[in-house]
Amino acid sequence: MKIIAITNQKGGVGKTTVCASLCGWLTKIGKSVLAIDLDPQGNLSFSLGAEQFENMYTLYNVMKGEVDLHDAIQHADYCDVAPSNITLSGLELELNSVGREYILRDQLELIAADYEYVLIDTPPALSILTINAYTAADWLVIPMLGEILSLQGLSQLKETIFAVKKYFNKSLEVRGILLNKYNPRLILTKEVEELAAIVSEQLNTEVFETKIGQSVSVAEAPAHGKPISEYAPHSKAAEEFEALAYEILGREKPQKARKKRGRGRPRKYGDN
Please, what is the end-to-end C-alpha distance for the chain in angstroms? Predict the structure, then answer.
């Protein structure tokens, strides 16, 4: 089982969209996937069509030790989801026991045989939820925008990653930095891309070759409870996320067979 956290301490960089889209494509190429919604806003749960009902178990109950992770998992249409809601926001004050950084990792060990990939959507803040995600993760994928403030958030994130690697998870690896809502026509985008490459070297990683452009389809998909792979599978955005999924896995994207266009059969003419 490979555990991937989608993370950035800065909000508005598209973490949830990236997480949902990757879940959709990993499922579509035949992988067993669990989505972990660690953001109290619950946007990933909504985006993947998880149900919200009274007295449901969520990650709040899991993190509090009231139930095990498999009790909270829902079998949604496109992958399994461990949902969250606003109750998760109070967890920072409620968790004060020794070893609180390892709660999620311990719970994931219980379901390790059930999934090939676990994707974690993290909140846009440095909190005990984020630390739990980093402690449990094998890989971090860091989305960022082509703007200076996003780059500043990346520099701040670097210190957190180093601290977690030192104290909680020595095997944590940054799989790559993703340029999201990418617009190559802007000069600023190119400048930020160059600076991101410098930061990526400090993190012993790279900026993904795949870039995700701005897309109306990506913005619309969550309202339908579908990942982009199902909502608009033939869109440019879907192709970009498919390429990203294969790049994260370290595999070549399969080439789609093109139909050969022949000249057809000779035209038949009537007898003269």
Answer: 73
Structure-block tokens of residue 200: 């990526």
Q: Which neighbouring-strand residues pair with 43?
A: none
Residue 154 to residues 119, 197, 215: CA-CA distances in angstroms? Answer: 20, 11, 23
Note the pTM of the prediction, 2 decimals. 0.89
Among residues 167, 119, 166, the alpha carbon closest in space to that of 143 is found at 119
Q: Which residues pair with 212 in a beta bridge?
A: 180
Mean pLDDT of 222-232: 92
Listed in order, strand segments (DSSP E) in the chain are 2-6, 33-37, 74-75, 80-82, 117-121, 139-144, 173-182, 212-213
User: Both tokens of residue 237?
Assistant: 């955005």
| SS3 category, 2 | strand
Supply the DSSP symbol for 207.
B
Residue with tokens 């178990």: 57
Residue 267: per-residue pLDDT: 55
Q: Residue 270: which pLDDT band, with cuts at 50, 70 and 90?
A: low
